[in-house]
Each structure stands twice: as C-alpha cells, then as structure tokens.
C-alpha cells in the first residue's frame, strides 16, 4: 500500500477489493496474515500507538519480518526513535533530525556481510567482495545511528572520510528486523549493464531472509532429526490462534509417510502446563526418510498444517555415547586375566604386559648358529687362540 495523499492510499497485489480497504490493519488477525512488513519513507506518526504496538507484536509474537528503509520521513526524521517499535529496531537512532542526505555514498561489505547469504551476488567470495565495491554509488542515504549489541552490520557506506552502517539485521522475539539506510538502491538497476541481476538478486535474498523463519499457526518439530538404530521419535506441535496466542482447545493429528510404503496416522496429546503444545511418541519401523504432516483443527475448522522430516539410520549407534564405561572395562579385564589401569598407572604398563597370562603368545624360532651369543662365543674362541699362540711364540 502506498500513501498518495493524506487520506488516500494505493493498493497493489491485493487478493480482493476488501483487503486493506480501511488502510493499515488495526487488528492482529488482519496484520498477522502477512509474513513481512517493509516501511519506507513514512513517519511514525502515520500509525496510531495501537498500530505501532501491533507492528511490534507482529515481529515479537507472530514471528514476522520487519524492514525499515531510509527516506526523508524515515528513521530519525520520521521520529521512529520515539515510537513503540524502537526497541525492536537493530539500531539506536540518532537524537538529531535532518539525518537524510542527498549525497553520493559508496558501499562495501563487512566481514559478516561477506559470509551472509543476503549479500551473495556471486558464488566466488573474492569476486563477490569486488562486485560490491564496484556497485554504482548511492545518491541518497540516511544516518542510522549505531548498531545495537547483538545486531549484525552486513554492509556499510562511505561518505568522504565517514563510514556508517547501511544494512543492519537483528533477531527480535520470534521474528527478525532490519534497517536499510537508503531508498536509492534503484540506481544499481539503472546504472549496471543490461542483464546484470545484482539488484534483483540482492532484494530477492533480503526478502527471503525476512520471511524464511516466519512460521504459520501450526509449528511442527521433532526432538531428533536423525534417529540412530532404535528409531524412537518424539513429534511435537505448537498451535496458535489468529492472534498468535496459544490455542489449547484444538485437535492435532499427524500423518506419517516412510520408506517401503510405511504409512500411519497418530493423534498428538496436549502437554501438561504448556497450553497450545502437543506431542506424541512414534517408532520408525525401518531405516529411511520419514515425513510427518501435522494438522490442527478446531471442530470442523482447519487451523493450519505444517511438515516435519526425520531420518532413521541403523548401524551407527556405536559411534555415539563414547564416554568411558568403567564397570564394563573392569569386568572385561577380570574375565580375561588382565588389569584395569588408571592414567596414573600407565608407567607400569610395560612391566605388566610381559607377565600377563592374558593375550596372545608369539613363539619365534631361530637357528642355533644364528643366535648372537653363539657368534660372540666363536669370535672369543678365535681371539683367545690367537692370544695363546702369541704368548707361546707360535705366531
């Protein structure tokens, strides 16, 4: 929705004529139907305090994504620092106004941005860094202040000798928030050669990041994604109503599909002292990949569905639980005639092994003439003979 005049908005991409007809939603059930919000050059005063709190709940409780862009009526110039959602923003906005500037600014990635999928325009890391350095300069920017502890600065802009954050992200509650301190990335699209998809790719990845972890009203999970040998799985679901509050008065079922035509339907039980949470135990009968489709219903109304996957692997449990089992080791040593040694007693290991009655005995047979002592005896005999001959004057 685009505010064209004070009391007039333009709606695009709506599902029906009634959607957003009254402007920005005032009820959680209406706003929480969306997965992400992008607020451009709109001042905080356009939203009522109740709507501002609703936006904060959209991120915190619903788990949605929120992105604020720079502009003449955005961030500090839009008084967003004093709004209800200031705590949800990943930056501490400056106290001053006139933070929006129409001046050139070049961009570059931070070390965090080099590793982020949001900023990956090319697969090669070095080429990607160079690509960002070569992007056309921006012609407008806004001072976003400083990043909060826990926030991540992915890109920064350079204005003369000054450097300030450009793209800052943070997790807040169940959702995510981000600030893009410019509204002028369109220059990348207009100034780059025809066919260069850098601008499109960046925005696709940023929007995908905003909504990736935005869950529906039914959130399925499994305690262990990989099951070793025994195949015992714990399947759980968290169910919420239209306002994304706990919904304990529902029925949750799971349809499980596995290898070799395995199929089962199970019902999840409510978890004590955890309203809106349900779980069940199930054993995968054979190795392979399994899919669990969970559905929540209130009477005949279907609230939503979600899918969880897990895999059973056999023959790998011996690689786990590798801590020392002392009782087993002592039992093995006793039954085989050996000894259990502590690390402090390892210095006696060399003396203990030759006299142990356990283990394998190897017999080595040598020819009598090939023994060293025989060679030394023969050598001594010849030397003694020579000495005697010399003493007797024979030599």
Describe what this molecule looks like in 3D:
The protein has 3 domains: 178 residues, Class I glutamine amidotransferase (GATase) domain (Rossmann fold); 100 residues, Immunoglobulins (Immunoglobulin-like, Sandwich); 32 residues. The model has no long low-confidence stretch (mean pLDDT 90). A hairpin with a 2-residue loop joins strand 10 and strand 11. The chain is elongated and about 135 Å long. The longest helix has 21 residues. It contains 9 helices and 21 strands. It has a 6-stranded mixed beta sheet, with helices on both faces. It is α+β, with helices and mostly antiparallel strands.
Report a brief summary of the structure.
The protein is α+β, with helices and mostly antiparallel strands. The protein has helices spanning 28-31, 49-60, 111-115, 125-133, 186-191, 198-211, 326-335, 349-352, 372-392, and strands at residues 2-5, 8-10, 36-39, 65-69, 91-92, 100-101, 106-109, 141-142, 146-147, 152-159, 162-172, 175-180, 218-222, 226-228, 232-239, 251-257, 263-267, 269-270, 277-283, 288-298, 301-313.
Which short descriptors sum up this protein?
elongated, 395 residues, 3 domains, Immunoglobulin-like, single chain, 5-stranded mixed β-sheet, 6-stranded mixed β-sheet, 9 helices, 29% strand, Rossmann fold, alpha+beta
Task: Give the amount of beta strand, in percent.
Answer: 25-35%
Topology-level CATH name of the largest domain: Rossmann fold
Structural class: alpha+beta
Largest sheet: 6 strands, mixed
User: Please, what is the average pLDDT?
Assistant: 90
CATH architecture of the largest domain: 3-Layer(aba) Sandwich
Assigned CATH class of the largest domain: Alpha Beta
Assign the CATH superfamily of the largest domain: Class I glutamine amidotransferase (GATase) domain
Give the strand tally.
21
**Sequence of strands across the biggest β-sheet:** 3-4-12-11-10-7
Shape: elongated
Bin the helical content: 10-25%
Residue windows where pLDDT falls under 50 for at least 5 positions: none
Distance between the termini: 124 Å
Which sequence of SSEs, written as H and E, runs from N to C? EEHEHEEEEHHEEEEEHHEEEEEEEEEHHH
Overall tally of domains: 3
Please state the CA-atom Rg, rounded to the nearest Å. 37 Å
Count up the helices: 9
């Amino acid at each position: 929705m685009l505010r064209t005049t004070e009391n007039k908005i333009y709606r695009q991409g709506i599902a029906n004529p009634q959607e957003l007809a009254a402007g920005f939603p005032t009820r959680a059930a209406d706003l929480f139907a969306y997965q992400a919000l992008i607020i451009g050059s709109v001042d905080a005063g356009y939203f009522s305090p109740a709507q501002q709190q609703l936006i904060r709940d959209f991120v915190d409780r619903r788990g949605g994504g929120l992105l604020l862009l720079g502009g003449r009526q955005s961030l500090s110039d839009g008084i967003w620092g004093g709004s209800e959602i200031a705590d949800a923003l990943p930056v501490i906005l400056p106290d001053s106004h006139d933070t929006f500037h129409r001046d050139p600014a070049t961009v570059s990635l931070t070390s965090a941005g080099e590793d982020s999928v949001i900023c990956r325009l090319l697969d090669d890391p070095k080429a990607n860094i160079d690509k960002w350095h070569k992007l056309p300069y921006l012609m407008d920017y806004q001072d976003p202040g400083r990043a909060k502890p826990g926030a991540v600065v992915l890109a920064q802009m350079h204005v003369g000798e000054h450097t300030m954050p450009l793209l800052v992200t943070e997790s807040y509650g169940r959702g995510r928030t981000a600030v893009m301190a410019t509204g002028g990335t369109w220059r990348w699209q207009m100034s780059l050669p025809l066919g260069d998809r850098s601008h499109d790719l960046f925005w696709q990845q940023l929007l995908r990041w905003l909504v990736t972890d935005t869950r529906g009203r039914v959130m399925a999970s499994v305690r262990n994604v990989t099951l070793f040998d025994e195949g015992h799985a714990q399947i759980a679901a968290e169910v919420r109503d239209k306002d994304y509050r706990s919904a304990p008065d529902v029925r949750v079922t799971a349809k499980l599909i596995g290898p070799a035509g395995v199929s089962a339907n199970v019902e999840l039980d409510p978890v004590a002292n955890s309203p809106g949470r349900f779980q069940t135990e199930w054993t995968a009968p054979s190795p392979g990949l399994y899919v669990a489709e969970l559905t929540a219903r209130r009477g005949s109304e279907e609230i939503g569905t979600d899918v969880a996957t897990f895999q059973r692997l056999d023959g790998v449990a011996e690689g786990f639980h590798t801590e020392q089992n002392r009782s087993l080791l002592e039992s093995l040593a006793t039954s085989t005639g050996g000894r259990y040694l502590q690390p402090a007693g390892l210095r006696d290991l060399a003396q203990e092994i030759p006299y142990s009655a356990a283990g394998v005995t190897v017999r080595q047979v040598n020819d009598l003439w090939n023994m060293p002592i025989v060679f030394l005896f023969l050598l001594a005999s010849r030397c003694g003979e020579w000495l005697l001959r010399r003493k007797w004057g024979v030599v």
